[in-house]
Amino acid sequence: MSDTETSRRRQALALLARLEATAPEKVAANLDDFDAEALEILLGFGFTDVVSRQGLALPTRELLTVAMLAAMGTASGQLEFHVRGALNVGVSREEIVETLLQVAVYAGVPAAINAIAAAKRAFAAHAT
Fold this sequence. Notes:
Layout: H1 3-19, H2 23-34, H3 38-51, H4 58-72, H5 76-88, H6 93-107, H7 109-127
């Protein structure tokens, strides 16, 4: 691993820790078990190159992520994580509810209902 890759990895994991303190260890173990470069490639791009940019605040980025994952309808685990992450960086439960209701209008009621199930799990986990 080069110094740049190591730095990108550290930056990506630090941002991930802002979303959920226990996530970096779990995600690193999962991706490193798959391939030694997977974390740097996937999270380096997503978290270091894009999410850490200054153009949008992290709570706004998380709310957008929740909306996009909900609209996709195929990533309930990631959606549940990002709902928790949004809550952890200051997004209110009401903002998440309103976002998922908006998803029903533009992505369809089935996508919103699936997203609501993931959000309920995230709300319950965040409350404990």
